[in-house]
Specification:
By secondary structure, the chain is α/β, with parallel strands linked by helices. The protein has one domain (about 5-190, about 200-255): 2-enoyl-CoA Hydratase, Chain A, domain 1. The protein has helices at about 30-45, 65-75, 85-100, 115-120, 150-155, 160-165, 175-180, 190-205, 205-220, 225-240, 245-255; strands spanning about 5-10, 15-20, 50-55, 100-105, 110, 125-130, 130-135, 170, 185. The chain has a six-stranded mixed sheet with strand order 1-2-3-4-6-9, with helices on both faces. The chain has a three-stranded mixed sheet with strand order 5-7-8. α1 (about 30-45) links the parallel β2 and β3. The longest helix is centred in the last third of the chain and has 17 residues, at about 225-240. It is globular and about 55 Å long. The mean pLDDT is about 95.
């Protein structure tokens, strides 16, 4: 598979996937998702890859959904059915958790919506000091996808998860670290080197034991993740996308005004 929106390299046993589509701040669209799934498969199958880093080019990790694309479809009167995208985006997070190899996410700038939840899917989250995690869905009349509600509930508990998802407020990197969401914080200029240093340390470790450890953690914490994605996430997001509130949220965002939600 040829990769248009991502760069990929293997160095000293570390497979580095770099989202690199500045045109829409590494939006999690179908092309990006399919490339990420293919690259994760490639990393899993390649014996030369011992640890994986998911990073980003540009000034943001990922802005989440492509709101400009949504707006164009709404203005054209087209029907938006994103069930396939929501399902496939969730599979990226699930695959990270199911992989036998440790995955580090190296996060810089804004990680919003699906981008935030991709970042938080890593086994280790290394974040630059300028990072903000934003569950921005609610501002568009949506609910979290890419596993957000599930992951956050597991990681920080239902109360904190509800507050982030219901308000959409930005979560600064130091608060995220204090809550246990982030493993390490560093200056943004040192992010690549910091993530690589951790990856090389893991790559020199007992890889069989790491693979077994990931399986233990999956069975202990994420055994019902696939069911949640299929039965909990995709149907609820589909209902929200069909709502008038979603259309209003998208239009308000693009038109830089406050949304006037009607609960319809």
């Amino acid at each position: 598979m040829e990769y248009r929106k991502n760069q990929y390299a293997v160095t000293d046993g570390v497979g580095v996937i770099t989202m690199n589509w500045a045109k829409n701040l590494n939006a999690i669209d179908m092309e990006m998702v399919e490339e990420l799934l293919s690259l994760l498969d490639e990393c899993e199958k390649d014996p030369a890859v011992k640890v994986v880093i998911i990073a980003s080019g540009g000034k943001a990790f990922s802005a989440g959904g492509d709101i400009g694309y949504f707006y164009q479809n709404i203005q054209a009167g087209g029907e938006l059915n994103m069930d396939d995208l929501i399902e496939r985006a969730g599979q990226v997070s699930l695959k990270i958790k199911q992989m036998s190899k440790m995955v580090i996410t190296a996060v810089n700038g804004a990680a919003a919506g699906a981008g935030a939840n991709l970042a938080l899917s890593g086994d280790f989250v290394v974040a630059a000091d300028n990072v903000k995690f934003i569950q921005a869905f609610i501002n568009l009349g949506l609910v979290p996808d890419t596993g957000g509600t599930y992951l956050l509930s597991k990681m920080i508990g239902p109360a904190r998860a509800m507050e982030l998802c219901a308000t959409g407020r930005p979560l600064g990197v130091e608060e995220a670290k204090s809550w246990g969401l982030v493993h390490q914080v560093c200056p943004k200029e040192e992010l690549a080197d910091t993530a690589m240093a951790l990856a090389k340390k893991l790559a020199a470790g007992p890889l069989v034991a790491y693979g077994a450890l990931k399986k233990q953690f999956f069975e202990a914490n994420y055994a019902d993740y696939a069911r949640y994605l299929a039965e909990g996430e995709v149907p609820t997001q589909s209902v929200c996308i069909a709502s008038e509130d979603f259309k209003e949220g998208v239009c308000a965002f693009i038109e830089k005004r406050k949304a006037n939600f009607q609960g319809k």
